[in-house]
Write a structure and sequence with these properties.
Elements (H helix, E strand, L loop, with lengths): L1 E2 L1 H13 L10 E7 L22 E4 L5 E4 L2 E4 L3 E2 L7 E10 L8 E14 L5 E2 L5 E3 L2
Antiparallel strand pairs: 1-8, 2-3, 2-7, 4-5, 5-10, 6-9, 7-8
């Protein structure tokens, strides 16, 4: 998965200037779903789905929410989104960001392994380790 542009900048400021990012120490990150590439310059609302009852999912920061091995982080548990109550969409990308709602900062984004169609009665669910974040 790629980082958002602002996150790239935050990492450089931290590594090279010792500036701690504003989101460091947050208890959760928020996983969201998109119907197109949110792009590195986007925010958490860029191409985010809006099916009925959709909401981002909070995942705890730390070993309870994520498992890190080498340069890869994986979700430690199942990530379950709300069941679609209306509308439909084809989900193509996933985001991990800083805010439960609104224009929060994209930390990571990337394509799903395959597009996922959602309509009334369908609930997107991602099993543990399905969502992986790899640093190059």
């Amino acid at each position: 998965m790629a980082k958002g542009s602002t996150t790239d900048h935050d990492f450089l400021l931290f590594a090279l200037n010792g500036v701690t990012p504003s989101w460091a120490g947050n208890a959760n990150v928020y996983v969201g779903l998109c119907n197109a590439n949110p792009t590195a310059s986007g925010n958490q609302t860029t191409n985010e789905t809006s099916y009925g009852s959709y909401a981002r999912v909070a995942v705890a920061v730390g070993s309870g929410g994520w498992t890190v091995t080498g340069a890869t982080g994986s979700s430690a548990g199942t990530i379950t989104f709300p069941t679609c109550t209306s509308g439909s969409d084809v989900l193509t990308h996933i985001i991990v960001g800083t805010s439960a709602s609104g224009t929060g900062q994209i930390l990571y984004f990337g394509p799903l392994s395959a597009p996922f169609s959602v309509s009334a009665g369908i609930q997107p669910v991602f099993d543990p380790t399905t969502l992986q974040i790899t640093e190059a």
